[in-house]
Write a structure and sequence with these properties.
Elements lengths: L5 H6 L1 H4 L2 E3 L4 E7 L9 E10 L2 E7 L4 E2 L2 E3 L6 H13 L1 E16 L13 E13 L12 E7 L1 H10 L3 H14 L1
Parallel strand pairs: 3-8
Antiparallel strand pairs: 1-2, 2-7, 3-4, 3-6, 4-5, 4-9, 7-8
Helix pairs in contact: 4-5
Length: 181
């Protein structure tokens, strides 16, 4: 299931270094995967989306840039979750996708974020894929508010993530582009 990541870890050190995310108090390490983990091990899913040759990113109400994704709902599979998240956050439909990898995570919290999620170890699955924007984002209550959806060349997307010091996401888009080529 795990693909040797040594060369990629050298090329994308911010993506492959172990980190501790302040939100949810989670330790995470990115890894390439050649197959999807068991359903009961997946808590979250993200996608590096593109439209044709351009890459898509979301601008949130605080001005920061992000990728679509989120937490699986009870009984929801990862593909259903990413299709829901794309509609909620980008007003987009998934056309095609490929597995890139996942962050293997360990929660440092006392209990799971939601009772139906795996705990304390889980995967935050990462896909890349072609999307089609159909409408405005749903922006559900309680979720981050998306104010803009940008579709741009890889260099522009990378520059925006680097400008906000999200080197991990900049490298994730570069990895997705390289795996596509």
């Amino acid at each position: 299931m795990l693909i040797q990541s040594q060369g990629f870890a050298t090329q994308f050190p911010h993506l492959f270094n172990e980190v501790t995310w302040p939100w949810g108090r989670t330790r995470a390490k990115f890894m390439l995967l050649d197959r999807v983990p068991q359903h009961e091990e997946i808590a979250n899913v993200d996608i590096v989306p593109r439209i044709g040759e351009n890459w898509v990113m979301l601008q949130l109400s605080d001005g920061s840039w992000d990728i679509p994704g989120g937490t699986l709902e009870p009984g929801e599979g990862y593909l259903d979750a990413i299709q829901r998240e794309l509609m909620e956050e980008a007003g987009a439909r998934l056309i095609s996708h490929q597995l890139i990898g996942a962050w293997w995570c360990q929660s440092l919290a006392e209990k799971p974020y939601r009772p139906h999620l795996p705990f304390p170890y889980f995967y935050r699955l990462v896909l890349a894929g072609e999307i089609e924007i159909e409408r405005s984002p749903d922006n559900p209550i309680g979720a981050e508010k998306v104010i803009s959806i940008a579709s741009a060349a890889l260099e522009v997307v990378v520059d925006r993530f680097v400008a906000q010091k999200r080197y991990d996401l900049a490298e994730l888009y570069q990895l997705a582009s390289g795996l596509r080529d």
